[in-house]
Design a protein that fits this description.
Elements: E1 7-12, H1 15-26, E2 29-34, E3 37-41, E4 48-53, E5 72-76, H2 80-89, E6 94-100, E7 106-111, E8 117-122
Parallel strand pairs: 1-4, 5-8
Antiparallel strand pairs: 2-3, 3-4, 6-7, 7-8
């Protein structure tokens, strides 16, 4: 097997709002879109983020009504404090403050309009 690209696919209620959030606040670009579907990309992300409208008939019956709850869309960034300040200045509510874990991970979280958690991370914290 050779993997040529990667994507994470999330079922949400409002595809347009999810797409606009990642486009406006995280620099993604909508690569493809159709009713109930959007595929977003960033050259440096290493994967696409795909949003599917809940209830979409092309999904298998046992997945149609699932929501992307409990999933954390995490992006490792170089300037965590700078990104935190930028998002706060843009009015994005921070739903988990900047925290540091004993294994060196530092992170904070926001939520998109559908409740999808977006976490920005670096590995610059002190390690025990």
């Amino acid at each position: 097997m050779k993997i040529t690209s990667s994507a994470v696919s999330l079922n949400v209620d409002d595809v347009s709002a999810a797409s606009a959030f990642l486009t406006r606040h995280f620099g993604f670009v909508e690569e493809m879109a159709a009713p109930g579907f959007a595929s977003l990309t960033r050259e440096d992300a290493g994967m696409n983020v795909v949003f599917l409208r809940r209830g979409l008939e092309t999904l298998p019956d046992d997945q149609r009504d699932d929501h992307a709850r409990g999933i954390i869309l995490a992006f490792v960034v170089e300037d965590l404090e700078g990104e935190l300040a930028r998002l706060q200045a843009e009015g994005v509510p921070i739903t988990m403050p900047l925290t540091a874990e004993e294994w060196g991970e530092r992170a904070f979280q926001v939520r998109d309009p559908n409740g999808v958690i977006v976490q920005l991370v670096d590995w610059n914290g002190p390690r025990s």
